[in-house]
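Changelog entry: the FAD-dependent oxidoreductase record was regenerated in this release. Current contents:
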Amino acid sequence: MSARSVVVDTSTGSEVIAFDYAVVATGSRYVDPLIKAEVAGEGARRAQIVAAHQHLKTARNVVVAGGGPVGVEIAAELRESFPHLSVTLMHGAGQLLENAPTKFGDWALDKLIAMGANVLLDDPVVQPAIGTQPADGKARTRGGKVLDADLVIWAAGTRPNTGFVAASWPQLVQDDGLLMTDAYLRLQGHADIFVAGDVTNLPEGRLAITASFHVPAIVANIKAMLAAATTDAARLKPYAPRLPGKGMGKMMIVTLGRRGGLTSLPFGQFRADFLARKIKSENMFVNQYRKDVGLL
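Regenerated structure tokens:
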């Protein structure tokens, strides 16, 4: 990436695309491709999902490594969709969802146990190595436990997809991969490059709802820059981060299967299944996303 163009890899090579304004919204990557695809093309991703589904149908024991929102949601989905599976959720911290609203950890633990999942806290997986599968059908923990594991789903080890920015401007990428972001959601020192979602270094939760707050702010500022005679003359509006635990920063939904979950709104925390189901659990925002891109 440069100040005025990006190089994009394609199926036939690479292509240089020039821009007047750019938005870096490349999200995060997981070490487990089952969670976020790294294959190119819809067909390859479909084949990957079908293969994983077949594996789950024949497996007996699955370990989910990581008790954040993704790990909790996956463990619940597995117990609901594959009731024959023994599912163990393992987390390195002493509480599930430790960065979520205060009541979520205990509520999620109670629900997962009620669904028949096993939960081990403060005892992370150390073998197999992160991102790999057990060669001997066993997962081993820091505390010395040995668990049967036909499959380990790695819901830990996320990192922002910002390597291409680091290749051009390493001084603007933190050690954790987050991009240094100014008050207007721009890459520091680059007036024409905006950043959104998981890649910003703002003090916010790395959630889809957070990215939805970034979008209108960036669109408004790009419109202001287009309308101004010069970039310096544009009247931009600073973005106010949604601080976790305050106001809109309290917004969060963790699904627990297709029919329930936990919901945090600015005015309270709720474990009312109907609320989570209505907002997220039934279709995981797919209809909303399709509407956003004009497919509904």
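Helices lie at 42-58, 69-81, 104-114, 163-168, 208-227, 273-281, 286-292.
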